[in-house]
Amino acid sequence: MAGALIRAVGLGKAYRMGPTTVQALHGVSLELHAGDFVAVMGPSGSGKSTLMNLLGLLDRPTAGSYLLDGRDVGGLDREGRAIVRSRSIGFVFQSFNLLGRSTALENVELPLVYAGVPRAERRSRAEAALERVGLADRRGHWPGQLSGGEQQRVAIARALASDPLLILADEPTGALDSRTSREILAQLQALNDAGRTIVLVTHDPQVARHARRIVAMQDGRAVQELLVADRLHAAAAA
Questions:
Q1: pLDDT tens, 137-152?
Q2: What are the structural domains, with CATH classification, of the chain?
Q3: Is-above-0.85 flag for pTM?
């Protein structure tokens, strides 16, 4: 289909461990369009994190092809991948990955600093991103002064600040209690409703049901893809 934001065909990833080759991913194909919200679901060792690393250009595939917004990015070198990541991909991780000695605003600004965005513009974009996640009044707080949910919302704001084509959320609720998890899932659903494209990596079927589609992984393979008929809406449950 023309116009796919992500088109991955036959992605494979093998690792050398001494004399042994371990095949972590076997011929995975995936297509996403702008505005999609896809959950990649599977247990530990299923290959979901390996797939996310390839989609996020944190690693290179050893087989297959990967086009992002029509550009073949699968074979880019380290520098090329870093440039595309900084311009096109926002990351949200389970452990927040905030700098403890930087304020919420400074943490959100950080990827814009690396991208060479002028100070006034990056400050404006970071403030707008914090406003988007409801934390404008916490912009001067240190991570240690924020709850787990607030820290994850700062991480979402950081992902938004560069206006990425794609947001990759890797177990974003894994370190949170159930109520705070619903708040974060509500944030992701609201972003998707506003047109953001999101790939959510999770081991939890209940979390996956907040997406629009689910790709189930097992033993390094995509074994099932289905539309979510009984979708959960976190905003209603929060």
A1: 999 999 999 999 999 9
A2: 6-237 (3.40.50.300)
A3: yes
